[in-house]
Every structure is written in C-alpha cells, then in structure tokens.
Amino acid sequence: MRKLFSALLLSHIILFSGFSASQAWAVTKVPPGNRSATQPAIPSASKSRTQKTNSTFQAKYEKIRDLIATDKTLQGKIKKAARQYGIAPIHIVGALVGEHTYNVDAVDRLQQLYLKAVAYLNEDIKFAHGKETVMQFVSRPEFKKCDAARDSYDVWSCRETIWKAKFQGKKVDGVSWPDDRFSRVFFQPFYAGQTFGLGQINPLTALRVTDLVNKVSKKPKLSARKPNKVYEAIIDPDTTLVYMAAVIKVSIDSYRTIAGFDISNNPGITATLYNLGNVRSRAGTARARGSMPRENYYGWLVNDKREELEAILR
C-alpha cells in the first residue's frame, strides 16, 4: 500500500509540476545581464497608456525609482519580504519598476492604496461570469482532476488550462463562453482593470500563491469565495509585497526544479516572468527547448538599470 501511495504521489507531481523522476541534470546558472543588446519591442498597449497620461517611460521609471529611494519604510518592507522568501530584494524592486514604468504610474502615498482596500470591503464583489461564480464554474466534472493538485498554484493553473482547452471561445451545454483569458472572464469585476496595488497583482495570481504565503508569512489563506479579502491582500501595502515575493519565489524555484536553470541572479528574468505569468508552464517549455531564458522589454529595463536600483537599497 505504501508503494502504491508513493507511486500515485509521484504521478501527481509529474502531472502538475512537470517534474520528472529522471530529472537529475546539473542546474545551469543564468548569468546576470541582458542577452539582447537592445531592448525588445515595447507593446503598443503600454505605449498607448503612457501617451494618454502625457508621460514618458523615462519619467515613469524615475518616479518609481525615486519613490523607492526616498521611502525608507517601503525599503524596509521590501527587504523584510525578500528575507522571508529567501530572494534578493532587487527582484522585488525589479518587478515594481517594471509594473510602474510600463503599466501604471507609481503612487505618491502608499496610504492611498490601503484606503482603497478598505473601501473594497464595503463592496458586494463576486468573482463570476454573469450569474455563475467561478467556484460554481470549477465544480463542473471537467475540473475534477484538478483536485489532485499539490498546492493552490497547481490547482488554479490546472483550472486555467482546462478553461483554455474546453471552454474558451466554445459553446458548452448551450452556453457560449468568451474567447478570453480565464482571469479576465471570472476575475475582473471592476472596469478599472485586472491588476491592483503597488505590485499590480491579479486576483488569480494571489489565489495561486496563497498556500505559499500562508506557509511562509502565516497570512490567512485566500478564497475565491471571499473576493473582498483577496482585494484587501493585494492592495494593502503591508501584504502586497509579501505576495510579490511569493510570486517571484515560485518563479525561481520552478525554473530550478522544472527547467534546470538558476535565475536567482538575474532580476531581469524574474521581472519578465512576473510580467508574463504562468511560470510553471513556461518552465516546462524552457526545459523542452533546453535554451537559456531570455528577458523581454520589461525585464530588459530592470537588468539595464540594475546597478542604479541596487544602489538605492544600500
């Protein structure tokens, strides 16, 4: 019986993490710096958002850089979160810089975010599509195999994979489902956008890492049944940095165990993964290709500015 249990456990690990029992290759260290001599193309959507605010990428970069440089309390929280998850603070700084340079403008006062979070507590929020909540949706038989996943990250990744394969853009049981991402269909109750807080974290991303945050930081586990608590966690400056650190920790660990790459000394790569998401799936692709991970436009800036960014932390 014990052998049977062990075999079943191993099969679940292989299925949901891409980890193989034969995985015994030496880990390849990804060196610091950019592999691309020039910055990869910046998406038109990012350019459009910046133009609409009459700003520039350089101005937005300087704004978030200066916010981190002058706010010693924020620096302390960044370093504390990094220590908890065993990562270098530059990884968190890199993600902050990428988000606030290419996606949103840095806020001047972190207290504004906390007040916004408190306001959400009074809202009647649901993660749903039409009248069907996401938890009702994933109770369908198609999602049954996701129950065997080892943690919250793999549970929600499994559910997203099934959404893409069997529902996205398809008509199922007489219902036509949107041809859009799982997170946009079920986790965007506000027209303001998908991501929130200093770390610009998607609610689905927070749900993915809630088991890790609970284990390391002892924060209560989040549930899709309680959207208000999810928003509070990702908007409150005291907790959003913890979730950022957890997301980055998953990236580093996944690329080491699944792909055989140590990306812990390349914040441009971790920033790229923070920007793109679906880390374990991407690690599996990196393993199959056998090629060293490459930074995108977002991560390229972080590596290019690394010396300057690390200096403000000293």
Identify the notable features of this structure and list them briefly.
314 residues, 17 helices, two-stranded antiparallel sheet, disordered N terminus, mainly alpha, two-stranded parallel ribbon, single chain
Q: Tell me which oligomeric state these chains represent.
A: single chain
Strand element count: 6
Largest sheet composition = 2 strands, parallel
Q: Based on CA inertia axes, which overall geometry fits?
A: globular
What sequence of helices (H) and strands (E) makes up the elements?
Answer: HEHHHHHEEHHEEHHHHHEHHHH
Which regions have little confidence, pLDDT < 50, spanning 5+ residues? 1-24
- In helices, the fraction of residues equals 55-70%
Mean pLDDT score, rounded?
Answer: 87
**How much is the radius of gyration in Å?**
20 Å
Number of helices: 17
Placed side by side, the strands forming the largest sheet appear as: 1-6
- Given the helix and strand composition, which structural class is it? mainly alpha
Q: How far is the N terminus from the C terminus?
A: 55 Å
In terms of DSSP E residues, the strand content is under 5%
Short overview:
The protein is mainly alpha-helical and 314 residues long. It is 59% helix and 4% strand. Helix 4 packs across helix 5 (89-102), helix 4 runs parallel beside helix 13 and helix 13 (237-259) crosses helix 14 (267-276).
What does this structure look like?
By secondary structure, this protein is mainly α. The protein has a domain at 30-124 and 239-311. The chain is built from 17 helices and six strands. It has helices at residues 2-17, 44-52, 57-70, 72-85, 89-102, 110-120, 134-137, 152-167, 182-186, 203-208, 210-217, 227-235, 237-259, 267-276, 279-289, 297-304, 306-311, and strands spanning 28-29, 128-129, 132-133, 171-172, 175-176, 261-262. The strands form three sheets. The protein has a two-stranded parallel ribbon with strand order 1-6. Strand 2 (128-129) and strand 3 form a beta hairpin. Helix 13 (237-259) crosses helix 14 (267-276) and helix 14 (267-276) packs antiparallel against helix 16 (297-304). The protein is globular. The model is unreliable at 1-24 (pLDDT under 50).
